[in-house]
Amino acid sequence: MAVMKFLCDTKRCIECNGCVTACSNSNSEALVWGIQRRRVVTLKEGEPGEASISVACMHCTDAPCMAVCPANCFYRTDDGIVLHNKATCIGCGYCFYACPFGAPQFPQKTSFGSRGKMDKCTYCAGGPVPDFSKEEVELYGANRIAEGKLPLCAEMCSTKALLAGDAEVISSIYRQRVAARSNPNVIWGYDPQTAADFK
Amino acid sequence: MMIKSLRRLLTLLVVLMSVSVVMPSYAANEQTSQQMANAEQSTADMWRAVKAGEVGTTAATEVEAGVLINTFGNEGKIIKNDYINPAMMAVVVGVFSIFLIFFLVNGPSKLTKGFSGKMVLRWSRADVILHWGMAISCFALILTGLTIMLGRHIIQPFIGHEAWAFIIHFCKTVHDWVGPVFFVFWAICVLKWMPRQTFKSYDLKWFLVAGGYINFGPFKGKHPHSGYANAGEKMWFWSLAIFGLFICTTGLMLVFPGLALPREVAMIAVLVHGVSAIVIIGFTIVHIWMATALSEGGLECMKSGYCDENWAIQHHDIWYDEIKANGSLKYQD
Ligand code: HEM
Ligand code: SF4
Ligand code: SF4
Question: Which residues form the domain of B162?
Fold first, then answer.
């Protein structure tokens, strides 16, 4: 069985936010105003060593969200994708507190009590309702996995920094890149040569 | 503006409350911020800084969007799932069965002189109403809170999906709305009843003979001195006062998403809420056992506000002598 993962190559990511736009477009029916499933974070903006990383739900193997959810509404697909059932979600927010990547988000931010149904990246794999049904499109968004395609964010990445696919496959692509950059020991392939280094 | 300062106040409160719980993680944070300070330009260091919670810039606007990785919540998850949830299970089952066994072996604590039939005023009308307001709301919070914490293990496996979805929604909604009701009753009760609950020297002796409730061995037939409240009741009162403050504060923090608390603070609130619930639920089980089964004639106090004169003499002698002496003793007409 495949284990689907995302991997972002910081040496390639140019912070164009194309993945964010692709995601919003692919899942537009399901996304209420203000929710954005993917985001690009830039570290050391404008300084030596600047790097950008695109992040969404990482579909953790030992997912903290799944472990804390009082409604127990998460499940893992055969491809290792972490999905959840919005019909059962009570909007308590525990998954957001537990998730290391800040992936879960909520439509209601100001009311009393429930935050509404949690929303997060589905790896473009829909949800626990019939594939391509109206309900699936409206609650969860696209189901490209059922169409035999990868998530739109990775497919549309202009520099192919954001990789999606079976962990084996994408990590070997990444390894080849790192080797080609002749910097085999560097974890994220970013070892900047700046004026400061030549002093 | 108000929300902001409220948020700051609550943040401070919960941090103070939980310093002891999170000390280890605090130490880790200090270490990691040091690592961040020393971070060199190499990628390994960058990765380490990201894991330590380095904040970047982003176009996204949700809470803490600039943080790539925050491991605190996962530590909280471990504390909750490995310690707090099992402890709750152990307390509910353990305290209940210990009391059941004790009751079966020991039998109830009877009035040695039987009922006198003369009823002495103990609680005002207002007190009785306040008590049941607090008790009913607290009980609703206990049942719904337990379902939120343990339902996925003890209820969900045995029922269908639709039924589970209904139950967990029902519990969440009831818990959210009854919470503030409990808070109001709790606050009035604590303030109104506090003066009678200060510890006195005779309370220590009460503990030494286990309150006189044991019907066998060297404890048999002992009736320790006690004022308006006995030492056990005082312990219950102060536990509810202190952990009630914790549970209400953290509960209110969790019930207003608009506060947009940092994830660490929210996770600590969940943990403090859970620990306080364990203490309150443990004591509540003991309290209900004592009131309904163990102490003969005790429940009457909270039904009518009056207690039997012999019950007052046996269980609260110092209070009885006092009201008799100062003339405030009132019989039921
Ligand atoms: C004696 C009183 C109370 C008890 C015994 C109690 C018990 C519990 C328990 C056991 C949980 C689940 C915790 C977990 O899964 O870690 C919980 C969650 C929660 N409690 Fe309480 N609680 C009480 C009072 C309150 C109050 C006064 C509020 C304020 C409104 C409140 C609001 C919440 C909230 C918001 C949650 C999170 C789940 C949700 O959003 O429904 N609780 N409570
Ligand atoms: S929501 Fe967060 S914790 Fe859950 S699988 Fe995604 S990244 Fe992991
Ligand atoms: S918000 Fe929904 S998905 Fe997240 S922990 Fe609560 S019930 Fe589960």
Answer: 71-326
